[in-house]
Amino acid sequence: MPALEAIVRDKFDALGAPAALVLPGGQRVGSADARVVIRLNDMRSLAHVAAGQVGKLAEDYVEGRADFDGSMRDLMSAVTGLVGGDPTRGVEHGPWRWWRELMRRGKSLARHSAEADARQVEFHYDVSDDFYALWLDPRRVYSCAYYAEPTMTLANAQEAKLDHICRKLMLREGERFLDVGAGWGGLLLWAAEHYGVQATGITLSRNQHAHVTRLIAERGLSGRVKMELLDYRALPEHEPWDKIASVGMFEHVGRALLPTYFDKLLRLLKPGGLLMNHGITAGGTSNHQLGAGMGNFIERYIFPGGELLHLSHVLRELSEAGLEALDVENLRPHYARTLWAWSDGLESQLGHAREITSERVVRAYRLYLAGSAMAFEQGWITLHQILASRPSGALSDGPMRGAQSVYPFQRGYVYRR
After folding, report:
1. pTM
2. Cα(218)–Cα(195) distance, rounded to whole angstroms?
3. pLDDT tens digits, one per residue of 347-403
4. HSE, side-chain direction, 13 A CA sphere, residue 264
5. Residue from 135, 71, 104 nearest 145 by CA
6. CA-to-CA distance for 353 and 366, rounded, in angstroms?
7. Do residues 383 and 376 touch, judged by C-beta distance below 8 A?
8. Of residues 262, 281, 405, 390, the one with CA closest to residue 331
9. Is the CA virtual torsion 24, 30, 33, 38 positive or negative?
């Protein structure tokens, strides 16, 4: 144990942030004027600190084996230093790499059957609608906001994101629009109310389905908007959609099912139609999750079944399905700011949150929101909007010869008012 204590002491002495660590016996290491103090209630946690396994340390906090005093931002500054490396580089190499990849593919296939996906979505999204309402914007948009202006509030930025997507998709009145993984209905309702589309959304969350169905009725949209409790693989293909959006959903598809996912979206989209795929991507080219134990923490407490994929892999699978990538936009810092807004919202409502759900859930989400904000700031994970089309095959289709879709092959239309 003295050796571990020496390693930990060196780590805290080298931290750029004023932080301290208190061991179970009361011994303290680190800054004398620390803004954040991590308290260990179990000596086993000391090994996690020494090894830079911040995901394990996060588990210790959720399970009550560790605690901290201070703000989430100061805690994350300390955690960044404790990681001690690039968590996107922890990729195994060597002669058995092919075997490990094969095993991962098998695991991915097993984890993403329709039944497994439904269980995993329920685990995350059906925690409590009231809990999410504490820290999301009034529309409950649970994805990266778009801070088109630096002075925007979270609510403003989420509306800007919804409109940004609708404008990129060139939504027009009367078009049939599909929202795959529609959440609490923010984009679905925005598209119907502001762009006049015939909108259909799907979700695997019973809570979300009930919430959006109620909103549709309250807003008098029953004739133009519907929400279905349905897996994307079960969507009928006999009447393809003009435009499709998938926002914050494909992270749950799984690496092994990505070809199935894009192939399905191709068949659901009219020739010449547009697809918006908006989702989290990996910062590293080969890592299937974040290192330092962070990926394991997310898997256990937040998003079971989630898999990180690099943009290059996503674009390859999208292209092999027959879709054409038209425009790619990186919104990584926007998601960092979004997550800090969510984190601040939860921190301001901790007492209420503990009344709504369990202490364990509150602790897990405190670390998840702030830790994810840190990871986006660091570039360990990122967020891309990929606008794609299903080429029509007719060179005369579109605004210029060879476009084969409604896309004008210039970005001006997105920003013109």
Report:
1. 0.91
2. 19
3. 999 999 999 999 999 999 999 999 999 999 999 999 999 999 999 999 999 999 999
4. 16
5. 135
6. 11
7. yes
8. 281
9. negative
